[in-house]
Design goal:
The protein has about 160 residues and is an all-alpha fold. The chain folds into three domains: about 60 residues; about 55 residues, ROS/MUCR transcriptional regulator protein (Arc Repressor Mutant, subunit A, Orthogonal Bundle), CATH 1.10.10.1550; about 35 residues, no CATH class. Helices cover about 65% and strands about 0% of the residues. The protein contains eight helices and two strands, in the order H-H-H-E-E-H-H-H-H-H. The termini are far apart. About 5% of the residues have low confidence. The structure holds zinc ion. Zinc ion binds next to loops. It comes from Candidatus Entotheonella gemina.
């Protein structure tokens, strides 16, 4: 678990180094402080979890998969490697597949094994590639308007009913 924290801290510092051109000394200092901050956050989280009653102790002992899925990366909880998307092919190197990986770490079936940004992007795409739903909605709205303006008997009677 703490190796995951070190990995997270390193990733953050590497990103900062690229963004701000830090010297090695500054980077090291930043790594220490980031790591300390993450550990502090983690221990707060652990306290919060164990303090809440009714939590099965197994769930507390198990590494939290939520911390492995970041906005732009997902960390393999078997080996700590980071990806944009945790592929079935990579999981096979651990004798796992997406299903058994989820089972092992208690990840819900609905949770995509990819970085949050990618999951969100996919969700947008999924919306975009459902033209029939959009078409249906558009047509529904359009026919409502047409019905009212052309004053079909149904619309007229509805109008009468609502005005009386
Ligand atoms: Zn791995």
């Amino acid at each position: 678990m703490s190796s995951l924290v070190i990995k997270m801290a390193t990733d953050l510092v590497v990103a900062q180094t690229h963004a701000q051109q830090l010297t090695p000394d500054e980077a090291r200092e930043l790594l220490f402080s980031t790591h300390a901050t993450l550990l502090a956050l983690q221990s707060q989280e652990a306290v919060g979890t164990s303090a809440s009653p009714g939590q099965p102790s197994a769930a507390v002992a198990r590494p939290d998969w939520r911390s492995s899925i970041l906005r732009h990366a997902i960390t393999c909880m078997e080996c700590g490697a980071t990806f944009k998307q945790l592929s079935a092919r990579h999981l096979r190197t651990h004798d796992l597949d997406p299903r058994s990986y989820r089972d092992k770490y208690g990840i819900p079936r609905t949770q995509a094994l990819s970085a949050r940004a990618i999951t969100a992007h996919r969700r947008q795409l999924a919306h975009r590639i459902r033209p029939w739903e959009l078409a249906h909605t558009d047509r529904g709205a359009a026919s409502d308007t047409a019905e009212t303006s052309s004053q079909t008997p149904a619309a007229q009677s509805r109008k009468r009913a609502s005005s009386s």
